[in-house]
Amino acid sequence: MTKPDLAIGPYTLTSAFGCGRQATRAALRAGRSALRPYESAQVFCHVGEVADLAQLSWPAAFARYDCRNNRLALASLEADGFSAAVAALRARLGAGRIGCVMGTSTSGIGATEAAYRALRAAGEEVLPASFPYRETHNIHSVGDFVHRWLGLKGPAFTVSTACSSSAKVFGAAARLIASGTCTAVVVGGVDSLCATTIHGFAALQLLSTRPARPFSADRDGISVGEAAGFAIVAPRGLVEDATFRLCGIGDSSDAYHMTAPHPHAAGAISAMTQALARARLAPADLDYIHLHGTGTVLNDAAEDLALASIGATAVPASSLKGALGHTLGAAGLAGVVLTAEAMAEGLIPATTNTHTVDPLLRCAIAVAPGRRTMRRALINAFGFGGSNSTLIIESIA
Amino acid sequence: MRAAIYGVGILAEGLTDWDHARRVLTGQVAYAAQPARAAHTGNLSGNEARRCPVPARYAIDAGLQALAMSPYAPGAVASVFSSASGDLDIADRNCRGLAATPPVLSPTLFHNSVHNAVAGYWGIATGAQTGSVSLSAFDDSFGAGLLEALTRVVAGGEPTLYVAYDVRPPPAFASVRALAASFAVALVLGPAGAGPVGTIEGTWQPASGPETAMDDPALDYLRRHNPAARSLPLLAALARGTNARIGLRCGGETGLLLEVAV
């Protein structure tokens, strides 16, 4: 089966940088960090929070879907005219020709956390029948919500592979299109701050008390963030506003450990090698690498080892997780949009908060912003369970 | 989308393995809901096996059965895992701990709470370093995962292990998520070749027709009360060796029509 030449766009991102592309671009230009301190009795860390979600006017018809994760999704869908762009495509192709593949790690589990606090306060043990489990906590809550909100009638499912979730959605979209099942696919990544992730990373001792400093000599953990991003994936030429090609996809498993990366970075090497082979590119053809770059000692060392193993240490590379926090299941989509916006701006973003790169690491880490014309970039997203995904995008000149 | 089925595995309450399930599905033995046998967890070390959550035990057991029937080694197949609700037992324990004063959360329960924990343990148990997707489409998860697996076979030519599972939720979820019995099914799908159990031609449908039901009321109850058991009509056709046309739902109120040839 011949693989269609796929394009990405339009796209949008809402994160701690703000709502939509303009706010994202302005923050990239300014090189600012949007992290703020978070303190509870047990945890002190920094988080990348999206402002004003509680004030968002929530549509009455979707009352049961009301939770922080779906609020974040809606804020993002309505930015940059994204919903309207999907509506226009729907009018052209028919709603049944457009698939909907979302990525999330924790979906709306925050709703269940709150419900359990209420149970405890009331001395109860069982969630009431009125609790909207399906529309909030369930993994597919966000996929179901986005599918309905956009009025799509194509296949809809939600990928959940921890922090690679919304990078893997591009592979699923490419397969739905290549198999003839869909003409176009709306992909997305949505993950919101919740107690499970903040306390969970704290329990694993992977949370820094300072803003995350990826690849720095003194890095000591992540900052957690939240984001929602969406993009249309369709054959090149179908969508006029598409400004990037999706030219490489890699997908692998470490088969090693639930949280620690493979000691020889086997999975990361495999994902990047596959993506380069499918794009028919060598590392030297890349202008920029958007690192997974979480800021933990082991993750960054493994990613560096993988990049050294494939001969990509000369390509300028950076991570924005010190600016936005690690947006977990939204990190793949956020990585694509941040990279696309940086490329459109001709800007290699600095690795926020990182001033002295770990001398043991060999990658060409950007610690200061750089100006460069960029055509092709590689984006990594790796997750718990040894789940790896790499994407390569190319600007359509 | 055409694919050959090279292996089948099953572990469920009342269905011990594929041999036993075949006898139940061909009417030689009546279905009786009873606790599942202990699952095989492949090459997990003692520590890993101890930490391995229940859904992963079911999935690893079913997946190993299916691969053993097939010509493929675990490292030669991509994998797709689908589950409507993932591990609600872990969600229950985590949310209970987070509601306590002070909040407590076990690091192991946290990393086991990810929807792809099953895929992670599968990789550790088998050494498979291939591409993998874990997904949910709520009650339509079996069809949605099968759609993703079929697109891997036809669009990428990748032999693919597909595992669908859902396990009983804990008592706290009794009013919001009722599943009748724990159930895991595995299929090894690949391009046409020698010696398959059967072939399926899957066609996505913009509107889901009625889902194919089971004649046996006990099996149909199981089918309707566990999203992974939506696989039963397909398994019945494979067990009986009869061609069949099977309607499934596959996410977003859409359908997947399967033409099964054996």
Give an account of the 3D structure:
- Chain A is of the alpha/beta class.
- Chain A has a single domain (6-395), classed as Thiolase/Chalcone synthase (Peroxisomal Thiolase, Chain A, domain 1).
- Chain A has eleven helices and 17 strands.
- In chain A, the strands form three sheets. In chain A, strands 1, 2, 5, 6, 7, 9, 10, 11, 12, 14, 16 and 17 form a twelve-stranded mixed sheet that branches.
- Chain B has one domain (2-194): Thiolase/Chalcone synthase (Peroxisomal Thiolase, Chain A, domain 1, 3-Layer(aba) Sandwich).
- The radius of gyration of chain B is 18 Å and the shape is globular.
- The mean pLDDT of chain B is 96.
- Strand 6 of chain A pairs antiparallel with strand 3 of chain B, so a sheet runs across the interface.
Could you list some keywords that capture this structure?
heterodimer, A: 397 residues, alpha/beta, Peroxisomal Thiolase, Chain A, domain 1, twelve-stranded mixed sheet, B: 262 residues, alpha+beta
Write the layout of secondary structure elements.
The complex is a heterodimer of chains A (397) and B (262).
Chain A lengths: L5 E10 L2 E2 L1 H10 L5 E4 L4 E5 L19 H10 L4 H12 L4 E6 L5 H14 L18 H9 L6 E4 L5 H14 L5 E8 L3 H9 L20 E2 L1 E9 L8 E10 L12 H14 L8 E3 L6 H13 L6 E3 L2 H4 L6 H15 L1 E2 L15 E2 L4 E2 L4 E8 L3 E9 L2
Parallel strand pairs in A: 4-8, 5-6, 5-7, 11-12, 11-16, 12-14
Antiparallel strand pairs in A: 1-2, 1-9, 1-10, 3-4, 7-9, 10-17, 13-15, 16-17
Helix pairs in contact in A: 1-11, 2-5, 6-11, 8-9
Chain B lengths: L1 E11 L5 H8 L20 H6 L2 H16 L8 E5 L5 H12 L7 H6 L4 H10 L5 E5 L4 H16 L3 E7 L16 E8 L7 E8 L11 H9 L6 H9 L3 E6 L5 E7 L1
Parallel strand pairs in B: 2-3, 2-4
Antiparallel strand pairs in B: 1-5, 1-6, 4-5, 6-8, 7-8
